[in-house]
Amino acid sequence: MSSLAPIVADRKFDCVVIDDDPDICTLISTVLSKIGISSVELSSADALAGTLRNIQPSIVFLDVALDRSDAIDGIRILRQTGFDGAVQLISGKDTELLNDIKAIGERNGLRMLDPLRKPFRSEHLRRLFVDGDDVVAKAVPAKLPEPGRTEFISVEERTLVPMIDLAEAIDSHWLDMHYQPKVDLLRNHVVGAEGLARVNHPVHGILGPISFLPGASDAALRKLTEFVVRKAFLDWEVMKNAGRNLHLSVNSPVKSLIGTGLADLVRGSRPSDTDWPGLIIEVTEDEAVREFDAIGEAAVQLRIYGITLAIDDFGSGYSSFARLKQFPFSEIKLDRSFVQNCSLDPVNAGICQSIVDLARASGAACVAEGIETESDREALIRMGCTIGQGYYFGRPMSVGGLIERAAA
User: Fold this and answer.
1) Which of 74, 315, 326, 388 could disulfide-link 335, Cβ–Cβ 3.0 to 4.6 Å?
2) Looking at residue 129, what is its pLDDT?
3) Predicted model pTM
4) Do the bridges between strand 387-388 and strand 175-184 make them parallel or antiparallel, or are there none, so unpaired?
């Protein structure tokens, strides 16, 4: 397909299929069309970057060995373009190689599904969408056809994910915050929550970070940090009045923490209630290392006012823990790529155990991100991890939803 732009203006594509075997592309596209899922076919990963500039698929089917490219090339492109859907590897290669490629995708921050071995049957594809991953399910129409029926529901015409200027969103007061519960793994009750910025657009509705963070200026990001900190203070008071004293956290780029502006904001607007447990600001591991000299002073100053730092996505940046422990942090967040399947994957389990031990040795809490199964929760408990979050406990929700979830 030479140009997607004219077609994209008319319809939504839910999947991209990348395989140099046209018969495989036809099989996948035909099966998916029968359950109301549209797709774009590519013979090589070379065209993927251009394709993703025009569409936002929920899933990419990616063959391992392609004409002029391979799955590793595809993974690099998906990472560079900020793809946030699911990746389904398809290949007849051996299982060990497929699992190695899957692990590379996960280390690049991608949502990698279990590889699908060739040859596969059409029913394997249908089950993937009906019974499978949460991200994949977003591509499916609200009502799927019953097995055996010959008529199928067509895909509702939807617009692509809109790109919103963050500065405009701030000036227009479109920002809001949703919260994902953080749960005591052993007692299984809510002890805190991570605040996640959202845009409540008057036309497009609730939008996640993919719609407003790419291309945002440093000034806009600084204002976003000020917003989420102030909002967390106000929302904590709402929760406290409802009988729920939860330790909240928010995300921020390191650059937004440096200087006197944030300290002044915290000094003047933090809750005065003696029950307030403080606020955690999460910074990514790679940023913490890159801005190491600047962040130490800011971390100490913020701690005066009850603000502590967490290292987010720990383990994904391959940094030196000896260096990181030189500045104060209260929490290490175990990267989801290691947490997922840690109950079965000995490599993931070993990495998780090492990070849990590092956290304990430093006196920090260890929070596991991306928990989706009971078996992984139990494995983390055995490792000594105390707190977790993920779809197993709840998706991001409103303040009212969090209060209800904490009361359950």
Assistant:
1) 315
2) 65
3) 0.63
4) antiparallel
